[in-house]
Amino acid sequence: MSLLDTIGGAQEFATLPPVAGKVLSLLENANADVREITSVLETDPALTLKILQMANSPLYAIRSNVTSLQQAVLALGLNRVANIVLSVSIFSKFILLSRSKSAEHMKRFWYHSSCTGMVAKNLAIKIKRNFKEVEFIGGLLHDIGKMAMIQFDPENYEKVVQIITEEHITDIDAELRVFGVDHCVVGELIARLWKLPKELQQIAGHHNDASALTENREVVALVRVADILCEMWGASIDEGILSVDLSEEKSWQILCEFSPPLRDLDLELFTFELETEFRQAASFLNMVASDASTK
């Protein structure tokens, strides 16, 4: 049975955790009722605690102390609440499924994902584009296909890493050799199974080549640029990138089409400015990860 067939038939991948699914369904309504969303969240005490922790964390810099769930939802906004719900739910789901052989890969995976989300968010601000935080959660979830590979078959994933290291080829090429499919195809399948928004499905499935898309090209390209920068800056997850000329990257070129001033971005200065974002990413990861087994 192929990896795609295995994942497609696996109960743990069939749906999002119930509370996450209900909240996202409610948020699809432009006139979502905060009280209804709050009542759904309150059925999950651990998730409620996480949202309160996040609302009071330096990550969101809310000035007043947040003491109630409804206050947190109003202060954070629905997009951010959706991000937290998805992040905590998905992280908890996979932590509970983790085996010892995959634990170290999962730790690196979530650090890379958190950093990618933070860098994507910062880059969107720099180019003055409002993606309603799709770029942030897209950064968190862009490699969910790789996460599934780690979870379902850590032995073969180790082979992928070995091939990348020894032969200096890309993760896509190594995955195709070992699994017969790459993490982008796997990621898009999972995003469809979870009925995630179209933009997130496209980020999971096409972040390595946004030029093939006819819609959402800019946000997919932005996540890919953030992904590459994180690989360059040490928050890597077995992609096989040794050096990069951003001017030659398709995703960078797409971003420059939408935002020509980006061509003049001082990458060295940008790297320096991202130090705070990297610290926030680590803080976000620790907050999401802490006590995950209690969910």
Description:
- This protein is mostly helical and about 300 residues long.
- It has one domain (about 5-295): Hypothetical protein af1432 (Orthogonal Bundle).
- Helix content is about 70%, strand content about 0%.
- The protein is built from 18 helices and no strands.
- Helix 14 (about 200-205) packs across helix 15 (about 215-230).
- The longest helix is centred in the middle third of the chain and has 27 residues, at about 100-125.
- It is globular, with a radius of gyration of 19 Å.
- The two termini are about 30 Å apart.
- About 45% of the residues are buried.
Summarize this structure briefly.
With 295 residues, the chain is mostly helical.
How many helix segments?
Answer: 18
Q: Provide the number of structural domains.
A: 1
Shape: globular
**What is the highest CATH level, the class?**
Mainly Alpha
Structural class: mainly alpha
Evaluate the radius of gyration.
Answer: 19 Å
| Second rung of CATH, namely the architecture | Orthogonal Bundle
Averaged pLDDT: 82
Provide the helix percentage: 55-70%
> What is the CATH T-level topology?
Hypothetical protein af1432
The CATH superfamily turns out to be Hypothetical protein af1432
Major sheet attributes: none
Order of helices and strands: HHHHHHHHHHHHHHHHHH
The number of E-state strands comes to 0
Low-confidence spans: none
Strand content: under 5%
- End-to-end Cα distance, whole Å, is 32 Å
